[in-house]
Amino acid sequence: MRLKAIIHEAEEGGFWAEVAALPGCFTQGETLEEVDVNLHEAIEGWLLVAEL
């Protein structure tokens, strides 16, 4: 499955990201690499909860 994530620079530093196709699926990180890892975890968690 492919999902589009939008990554934003946070005002206080670092980044935050959202997945528009999954309402409420957000994450953040200090680096783009950290946001990428966190996005995978956030999407996986969102999909697991959605199955319940």
UniProtKB/TrEMBL annotation:
<dbReference type="InterPro" id="IPR049389">
    <property type="entry name" value="TTHA0281-like"/>
</dbReference>
<dbReference type="InterPro" id="IPR035069">
    <property type="entry name" value="TTHA1013/TTHA0281-like"/>
</dbReference>
<protein>
    <submittedName>
        <fullName>Type II toxin-antitoxin system HicB family antitoxin</fullName>
    </submittedName>
</protein>
<dbReference type="Pfam" id="PF21748">
    <property type="entry name" value="UPF0150"/>
</dbReference>
<dbReference type="InterPro" id="IPR051404">
    <property type="entry name" value="TA_system_antitoxin"/>
</dbReference>
